[in-house]
């Protein structure tokens, strides 16, 4: 039979980057295309121990239906940690457990967006968020960035000229894909503008604890006095992505509606791993664990920055992120990174072309994203030398 | 600030049954309101053993990002079992792992429904499905049931008079909330009508293996030759609901779009428990496990039927389900079961009034649902005696 797919789902195009990801099945390919921490950083031994404890002590709680809002001890521990350590969320806010930052993005979108409403985001931005917005029929507008993050003058132009803007989506710290961090001054201006135009901010902050140098910048949520910021947090980058545990901190009026949407999406998050994370927070020192992970990541970041300096043509620029998982490279203005990335795959390396992160997927992007946390130091060197070669062939 | 919630989310009313569920925090209340198997039936020892094995042998696979479609061995094992044992799904179909039947319902709805499109369902039907449909702005129409399930004459009237019907939602076996099973003849007629009006069928079948007597009826999907049936299966009722593992079998054109929606919903299902279920299917005999669970449930069903006969006023009718988890009671025509259920809670028992399962939530329902799998035999007896008392007080 012929299927009549919903309009905005049918309109979602098979991404041009799919063919690049196809090469990943080849085990010889070095993947710089991931967005995850090095598996050697996962606290697997501790999780194994805690899992055995749960089976011995509280298995029925783990295996029966749980609350849509999340496992209460994990909600409490997460709320307390974010409040005490990062002044993020207040007693007036609520917190739900989600299956990662992606679900927070999706639930907020479903909660707020009537088809055709506008979401404003950074250009470039996280492809998973852009596609979540598209899947609910949102109209997307992007605001160009500079070294300090989203350009506030450009944001105001977009807000002044757009109708039915429901929220501004930002990844303020070690942004995906650029690795850039929005300055404190910009965060304040962003909040002011959101107030002036009466729109929400979705602060997606999965990488912020992965800082390898420089001073931490307060979250936007920590400056929010009126429930204007919805905060998406995650245990994916500081414990493990495969378990799918994240959270959302926001005003209860928003959270209550997101709970309704989550109830009909998946009833609740896997209960066992909510318990594993809760027990982890109670039993171990997660800050120390993150510190160790940062040490590992810093070595890899430094190695990749050095390899870029060594192998890349001087016409190519790249970011020096103070943390996170990504370095963003830019070819000279007007060059098409999609074509470059295709050539890079021929050399058995996978990067993600900038067009994947664009609101307009057909627009030419001169940028591409490289991940440094997943490859080994040796792979980083080999991959960058091959990319350097591809760049020279491409530019000359 | 004032929040501008999306129209169809804002329109979702706080359910009248919420106050009934509030009493569940009182540990003295006997809950007949659940929809889950007895925790003593969960294969916890086996899962503990398999979990330890995964930590020892394949932890990195469990904790890194997985495929949106699901963990390949679990996809293969589930597809094979459903095909070989139940002729459900063909080589032309595809299968994705979801976080339970609820997510299959939600993903199909997002895939197919433009706001205002119609979904036809049984009256009464599963509240989680109805709310999922509402959360995407679907227009709902219900078709009355009799002992053999959805009435086909009434279904044709609805299909003939409705525009943009995208699918018919049925729970053909041990239906929630009525416990009824759609006859083979009706299943054939349903498929014929779906063909005539060119609409899909969503077959939600989480309870079908929990049969305590009578002959199994083939799934609707097993009679589907043209990709018209989307099949929602679940491990919640045969292993454990808290782990959140289900699956969907359908034509690849549908599955591909559902994968896009799942990718932006939660990236993938908890990887560890997909591996637990896969290893369970490889290591143990799930059919034998289900047989044991059925023995346990049958005893409880029989006890509840007997208690209904003993304690209930003869003006009340109740179903004799051949399996599943629920018995459905009906007061004389015109009586309001919501009021009765309120009185039942005063006697420290929780049932779910029929209005919760209605497309029109404000309509008076004379039915209510009782679950027999979660309470103990003693609790079943006490609860039914109290309900009997409340019924007499209510009717007299």
Q: Find the structural class of chain A using helix and strand composition.
A: alpha/beta
Largest interface, and how many residues on either side?
A-B, 74 and 74 residues
- Classify the oligomer: homodimer
Shape of chain A: globular
- Count of runs of 4 or more consecutive helical residues of chain A: 14
What's the overall average pLDDT of chain A, rounded? 96
Strand segment tally of chain A: 14
Spatial extent as radius of gyration of chain A: 21 Å
Level-2 CATH architecture of the largest domain in chain A: 3-Layer(aba) Sandwich
CATH class of the largest domain in chain A, named Alpha Beta
Order of strands in the sheet with most strands of chain A: 2-9-8-7-6-3-4-5
Q: Tell me about the biggest sheet of chain A?
A: 8 strands, mixed
State the CATH superfamily name of the largest domain in chain A: Type I PLP-dependent aspartate aminotransferase-like (Major domain)
- Strand percentage of chain A: 15-25%
């Amino acid at each position: 039979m012929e299927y009549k797919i919903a309009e905005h789902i049918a309109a979602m195009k098979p991404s041009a980057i799919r063919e690049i990801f196809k090469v990943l099945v080849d085990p010889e390919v070095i993947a710089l295309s991931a967005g995850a921490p090095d598996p050697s950083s996962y606290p697997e031994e501790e999780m194994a121990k805690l899992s055995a404890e749960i089976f011995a002590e509280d298995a029925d709680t783990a295996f029966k239906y749980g609350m849509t809002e999340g496992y209460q001890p994990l909600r409490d521990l997460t709320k307390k940690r974010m409040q005490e350590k990062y002044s993020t969320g207040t007693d007036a806010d609520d917190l739900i457990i989600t299956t990662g930052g992606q679900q927070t993005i999706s639930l907020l979108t479903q909660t707020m967006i009537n088809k055709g409403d506008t979401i404003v985001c950074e250009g470039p931005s996280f492809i998973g968020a852009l596609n979540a917005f598209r899947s609910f029929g949102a109209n997307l507008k992007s605001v160009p960035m500079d070294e300090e993050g989203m350009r506030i003058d450009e944001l105001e132009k977009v807000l002044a000229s757009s109708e039915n803007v429901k929220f501004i989506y930002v990844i303020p710290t070690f942004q995906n894909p650029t690795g850039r961090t929005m300055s404190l001054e910009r965060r304040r201006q962003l909040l002011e503008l959101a107030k002036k135009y009466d729109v929400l901010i979705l602060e997606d902050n999965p990488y912020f604890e992965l800082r390898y140098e420089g001073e931490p910048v307060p979250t936007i949520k920590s400056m929010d006095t009126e429930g204007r910021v919805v905060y998406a947090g995650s245990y994916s980058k500081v414990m493990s992505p495969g378990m799918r545990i994240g959270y959302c901190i926001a005003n209860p009026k928003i959270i209550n509606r997101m709970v309704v949407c989550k109830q009909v999406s998946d009833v609740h998050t896997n209960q066992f791993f909510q318990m594993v994370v809760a027990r982890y927070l109670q039993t171990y020192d997660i800050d120390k664990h993150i510190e160790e992970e940062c040490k590992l990541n810093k070595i890899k970041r430094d190695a990749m920055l050095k390899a870029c300096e060594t192998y890349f043509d001087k016409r190519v620029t790249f970011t020096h992120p103070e943390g996170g998982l990504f370095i963003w490279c830019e070819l000279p203005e007007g060059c098409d990174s999609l074509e470059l990335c295709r050539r890079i795959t021929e050399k058995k390396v996978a990067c993600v072309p900038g067009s994947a992160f664009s609101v307009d997927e057909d627009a030419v992007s001169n940028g591409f994203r490289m991940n440094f946390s997943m490859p080994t130091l040796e792979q980083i060197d080999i991959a960058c030398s091959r990319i350097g070669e591809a760049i020279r062939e491409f530019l000359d």
